[in-house]
Amino acid sequence: MSDITNLYVQRELKPKIEDVLPYFIDGEELEMAIKFVAYLRANKINLRWAGVHNFWNAKNKGKNICFVKLGASWLGRKLPGTEVQVKWEVLPSLINMDKYETKIIDMNMQHYIWDGFAYCRSSCNNGCASPVSKTILNKEFTGLCNGMFFGSRLPISFVNPDEAAIEAVKKLLEWEKQARVG
Predict the structure, then answer these.
(1) Are 47 and 30 in contact (CB under 8 A)?
(2) What digits encode the pLDDT tens for the residues 33-51?
(3) What is residue 177's DSSP assignment?
(4) d(Cα 114, Cα 141) in Å, to the nearest integer?
């Protein structure tokens, strides 16, 4: 049997994320991740292997709305101040966040956004020209990764999300979908 976590095997199989998840997470965390994937599909968010090692692209109406990455962070980050292993992460593509930022603040969800930013590392080779400074949800940030701003997507990552973080991601994706229609 081939190793489904191997890039070359993934290129051939284009696996479903459910088939690969158990190689990275287990127990209650695995159940939560599988429920999140089921939620995406039930809400017309098509999740497919992205052609990148352990990386899935989620699209709504043909447009990227989030990514799911398994294994070490694609920017090589560790959880701040820890040696916590990155098992999986959700990277929402919130290109219309300005349309629902009041809702984020009213529901006191801004910390999920702020805590998930990627900061510039001089050696990341992610297309960075230089770090950027931005005011996001009424707070000034400096040193954000410029390479992450492709398609105006904020550099947000939910690393090893717990149940509360998954619920926040769902709400953010719901608002993003609504903003894209209206």
Answers:
(1) no
(2) 999 999 999 999 999 999 8
(3) H
(4) 9
CA dist., res. 150 & res. 114, Å (int): 18
* 95-135 pLDDT, tens digit each: 898 899 999 999 999 888 887 776 665 555 555 566 767 77
Please name the residue that has the structure tokens 């992205």: 50
- Among 131, 170, 171, 154, smallest CA distance to 32 is for 170
How far out from the chain centre does Cα 7 lie? 20
At position 30, the amino acid (one-letter code) is L
The amino acid that residue 143 corresponds to is G
What CA–CA distances, in Å, run from 15 to 57, 92, 145?
12, 21, 30
For residue 178, the tally of other CB atoms under 10 A from its CB is 13
Q: 136: which strand partners?
A: 139
Separation CA 9–CA 5 (nearest Å): 7
Structural tokens at position 80? 């701040």
Q: How many CB atoms lie under 10 A from the CB of residue 31?
A: 11
User: Tokens 């992450």 correspond to what residue?
Assistant: 148
Neighbours of 34 (CB within 10 A): 15
Closest by CA position to 175, among listed 106, 73, 115: 106
Read out DSSP for 18-37? HHHGGGT--HHHHHHHHHHH
